[in-house]
């Protein structure tokens, strides 16, 4: 088994999207073991704790953006969420997420690219108005990867209300991530 730190370093080495998809295709089946068991990943539990404080949490539609293998979806379901959809750019990771049984729908797509759906381009289109969008974005790519700018743009355009952005541990004692909870606004 390849050491977890080596896998994490490789995925963070700015691989082109096609290489990154191929990398995740190979890693998907052992990702949870590497990240949770060997690396003390606490982000799924922390983001679920933030999200479940939102009123009517258990009955809201939730989009787990960048859902990967479904670790956040499982934490959301364990904290009472019942309507969870997932979005990730890796079909192999989504196949693992499907095995969790906690997602209603899973979508292939990149948060910062056009998603193959009928109208618009932003990832928030997948969600119905007043639903929550949950995302965990590593601190090292929050600004440089364009995620902060995209969230701010969607908020300025009146598409999202940012409920919470907190910088928390991703892996205990190793690195941090921005944990974002947004609400899709009603369209008038």
UniProtKB/TrEMBL annotation:
Alphabetical list of Pfam families matching this protein: Methyltransf_25
Protein name: Methyltransferase domain-containing protein
CDD domains found in the cross-reference section: AdoMet_MTases (cd02440)
Residues that span the membrane, as ranges: none
InterPro entries: Methyltransf_25, SAM-dependent_MTases_sf
Domain named Methyltransferase: residues: 62-128
């Amino acid at each position: 088994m390849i050491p977890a730190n080596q896998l994490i370093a490789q995925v963070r080495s700015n691989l082109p999207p096609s290489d990154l998809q191929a990398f995740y295709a190979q890693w998907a089946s052992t990702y949870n073991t590497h990240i949770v068991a060997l690396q003390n990943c606490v982000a799924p539990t922390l983001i679920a704790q933030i999200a479940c404080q939102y009123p009517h949490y258990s009955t809201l539609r939730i989009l787990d953006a960048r859902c990967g293998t479904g670790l956040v979806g499982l934490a959301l379901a364990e904290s009472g969420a019942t309507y969870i959809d997932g979005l990730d750019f890796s079909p192999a990771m989504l196949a693992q997420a499907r095995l969790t049984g906690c997602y209603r729908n899973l979508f292939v797509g990149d948060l910062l690219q056009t998603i193959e759906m009928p109208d618009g381009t932003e990832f928030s289109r997948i969600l119905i108005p007043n639903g929550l969008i949950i995302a965990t974005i590593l601190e090292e790519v929050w600004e440089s990867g364009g995620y902060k700018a995209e969230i701010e743009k969607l908020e300025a355009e009146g598409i999202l209300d940012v409920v919470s952005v907190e910088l928390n541990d991703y892996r205990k004692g190793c690195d941090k991530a921005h944990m974002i909870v947004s609400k899709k606004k009603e369209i008038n």
